[in-house]
Write a structure and sequence with these properties.
With 77 residues, the protein is of the alpha+beta class. The chain has one domain. The chain has a two-stranded antiparallel sheet with strand order 1-2.
């Protein structure tokens, strides 16, 4: 198991072996969580290449709805 040291500025270097195994790149965001008094956990957030496709979907909606129609229906509620 690779080891690292906490610096006087409380910085920690992730060992090269671990970085290479998971493909960690500079600039990626991680969250540090306390598991117990003896354990901490780093969680990695992967960037999504095309977030619009994840949120909206890849296929367009089959029916075009005019904005006026949407506004009228919203006002009715």
């Amino acid at each position: 198991m690779p080891k690292t040291r906490v610096t006087d500025k409380f910085r920690v270097t992730i060992p090269k072996q671990i970085r290479e195994e998971i493909g960690l790149k500079p600039g990626e965001v991680v969250v540090v969580e306390r598991v117990s008094a003896e354990e901490i956990l780093l969680k990695r957030f992967r960037r999504i290449k095309e977030p619009k496709k994840v949120l909206v979907g890849e296929k367009p909606f089959g029916r075009h709805v005019p904005v006026d129609e949407l506004e009228e229906k919203a006002e009715m509620r």
